[in-house]
Specification:
By secondary structure, the chain is of the alpha+beta class. The chain is built from five helices and 13 strands.
């Protein structure tokens, strides 16, 4: 599961982002294992009209500790700021393919291309170019968010990674997951049968001061209800602490057979 949170402040105010990569369990096969991964750190990009602070915390699923999990992400302070999550498809392990290789290479490529002139600060084009540059066998769902300095957030996603915008304790925007059928999300793949950037859902949201944005893989949204996310954010003013709280909640729920 991967998720990210930031609180927006416009025009010389302060905006924050909290990011946590987590659960990955995707392929057109039944789910068998869940991956949780979170990390914690902070990033302060160059001051602009909108800035943000990022915290991450990484906890791989107990069965996947050795390879550090199957999810990947990157954070960039280019222009207003860019964040992205790729959720590796764990079903590839049944074909003796490391599911983490594709997602990690996809995010590495996206990170290196974020300032490319042809990308033109467009999340959908960034997905296209990063996917085209990825050579590893496998597949992943992905979501990219780009923050303009005027407070506009542009989002492109393929699959069931998601994003929520919380304003004054209410979710005022959410992305919709793309699935062929249950447990088979749209995915960027090394194979021709996968989806492309043309299948991405593209959105634009105007942020206002105090907004909180939560981005993540299905591992967050499958294991934590929207109401629980809102409650955790209300209980933690610090985004890093909020990230840890959501990570722990998602982890506990994912490992609890009663949930």
């Amino acid at each position: 599961m991967a998720n990210s949170i930031y609180r927006a402040s416009i025009l010389q105010s302060y905006s924050q982002l909290l990011f946590q990569p987590c659960l990955s369990n995707k392929h057109c096969v039944p789910k068998k294992t869940n991956l949780l991964c979170f990390a914690s750190s902070q990033l302060n990009p160059a001051r602009s009209e909108v800035s943000f602070c990022i915290g991450t915390h990484l906890i791989p699923h107990p069965n996947k500790v050795e390879r550090g999990g199957e999810d990947a992400f990157f954070v960039s302070n280019f222009k207003g700021g860019v964040i992205a999550v790729a959720d590796g498809v764990s079903g590839w392990a049944e074909q003796n393919v490391d599911p983490s290789l594709f997602s990690k290479e996809l995010m590495a490529n996206a990170s290196s291309l974020v300032g490319n002139l042809e990308v033109n600060y467009d999340p959908q084009i960034l997905i296209r170019k990063a996917h085209a540059a990825t050579c590893s066998k496998g597949s992943a769902t992905a979501i990219v968010a780009m923050l303009e300095r005027n407070g506009t957030m542009k989002v492109a996603s393929v699959g069931d990674c998601g994003l929520r915008v919380i304003r004054k304790g209410q979710i005022i925007f959410s992305t919709t997951p793309q699935e062929h059928y249950f447990d088979c999300p749209y995915q960027l793949s090394s194979e021709l049968v996968g989806q492309t950037y043309l299948d991405a859902v593209v959105s634009s949201v105007e942020l206002v001061e105090g907004d909180t944005i939560v981005m993540g893989s299905d591992g967050l949204f499958d294991n934590v209800f929207d109401g629980e996310i809102v409650s955790k954010l209300a209980a933690h003013s610090d985004v890093v602490e909020a990230a840890k709280a959501l990570a722990k909640l998602a982890s506990n729920h994912s490992l609890d057979s009663r949930v």
